[in-house]
Amino acid sequence: MGRKRILNVSRRQVIRGLLATSAFGLTAKLGTACSPSGTGGTDAAEGGAAGSGDPLTIGFIYVGPKDDYGYNQAHAEGAAGMAKKFSWVKLVEEANVPETTAVAESMRSMIDIDGAKAVFPTSFGYFDPHILKLAEEYPDVQFFHAGGLYQEGKTPKNIGSYFGYIDEAQYVAGIVAALTSKSGKLGFVAAKPIPQVLRNVNSYTLGARSVRPDATTQVLFTGNWAEPIKEAEATNSMVDQGIDVVTCHVDSPKVVMETAERRGIFCTGYHANQAALAPKGYLTGAEWDWTNIYSKIAEDIYAGKSLQDGTIDHILRGGLKDGFCKVSDYGPAVSAEAKAAADAAKATLIDGSLVIYSGEVKDNKGGVVVGANEKLEQKDPKLEQMDYLVEGVIGSVGG
Fold first, then answer.
1. pLDDT digits (tens, 9 = 90+) for 205-224
2. What is the pLDDT of residue 4?
3. Which H, E and C letters describe the chain, residue by residue?
4. Contact call for residues 339 and 330 (beta carbons, < 8 A)
5. Which residue ranges does the record assign to the ABC transporter substrate-binding protein PnrA-like domain (predicted)?
6. Rounded to whole angstroms, how far apart are CA atoms 1 and 34?
């Protein structure tokens, strides 16, 4: 088989071929060298023993492209930032892997061919059943999932859950949106009504209403993480209804940002910085800063720590204070008043004096979801089980 042809096949095709041939050693090395999206590790490292001085191979899998201006780009930038910091890291990546058995094949390929000792399958839908199954199959490999699905006593010990309190940055963005909006009508294009998405919608709205109590947020769910046509339709529909600031929680905010700019309204971003897509209307955004957490995990593994023995926490969380996320730089349309209010809120979130879900908080049906004397700190499990929309949000969890 010629080298040119090998470069045109996916990792999943390579692993199928490896499983069907007895010449495993030769083809495994060839498959690793030709990994479609690997980032240049050396052939000498076939995994690397933790703490031994050998390179440590770490795999990353993305559900979409690495340059989507969104979820996947944020993770890819974090992985690249981590690899850049440590010469002993060998980074292996694959993009555009669907939430099907394809991701299981990709993980198996990274482990069997590349010798990965830790794998980061970054999409929410990779967890059940795919990560769960592979974790049982490879008990010595550490699996890190971006989400809140780890359950003590139920989830295999070699699986860890990491996520950031990016709703803190969304709260700040909501303040900027409300103080920039002329109508007080904000819009939120969302993928699915799962707790992480609802938490962003609600925190954005609570931030907006903290400075403008009459502000509302219209939310529209597209039903999936990447639905560019529906995202454009939802944004246009919001503009037609008089909404003049939009944001989103979808894999790639690109369509929402560009549609908002084309229609002449403002926008706030998500996942990564989208200022280049809307140079006039981009106000700010809630960005991930995954380099910090990826670097910390890599250092721990290299030092011999693990999920299995409890020296790496199974649940890793952090917010603005911990560098898991950040607020995008302010755009040209943001007033001095809005900047001051946003900066003040950010400071109180960092020092802990502001608790976003502090009672009394009602849902948009009039029910009390946070009692008058109740405070739900960021680590409260109730927040990771959120199934409601707060007062001020127009829409429904089932809609």
1. 999 999 999 999 999 999 99
2. 34
3. CCHHHHHCCCHHHHHHHHHCCCCHHHHHHHHHHCCCCCCCCCCCCCCCCCCCCCCEEEEEECCCCCCCCCHHHHHHHHHHHHHHHCCCEEEEEECCCCCCHHHHHHHHHHHHCCCCCEEEECCHHHHHHHHHHHHHHCCCCEEEEECCCCCCCCCCCCEEEEEECCHHHHHHHHHHHHHHCCCCEEEEEECCCCHHHHHHHHHHHHHHHHHCCCCEEEEEECCCCCCHHHHHHHHHHHHHCCCCEEEEECCCCHHHHHHHHHHCCEEEEEECCCHHHCCCCEEEEEEECHHHHHHHHHHHHHCCCCCCCCCCCCEEEECCCCCCEEECCCCCCCCHHHHHHHHHHHHHHHHCCCCCEECCEEECCCCEEECCCCEECCCCHHHHHCCCCECCEECCCCC
4. yes
5. 57-338
6. 13
**How much is the pTM?**
0.83
CA–CA distances in Å: residue 75 to residues 147, 247, 305, 361: 13, 20, 23, 33
Assess contact for 260 and 235: CB atoms under 8 A.
yes
CB-based contact 250:190 (threshold 8 Å): yes
| Encoded tokens for 379 | 């680590």
State the Cα torsion 14-19-22-24 to the nearest 10°: 50
Question: Rounded distance, CA 387 to CA 377, Å?
Answer: 17
Q: What's the rounded Cα separation, in Å, for the pair 77 and 32?
A: 22
pLDDT value at position 54?
87
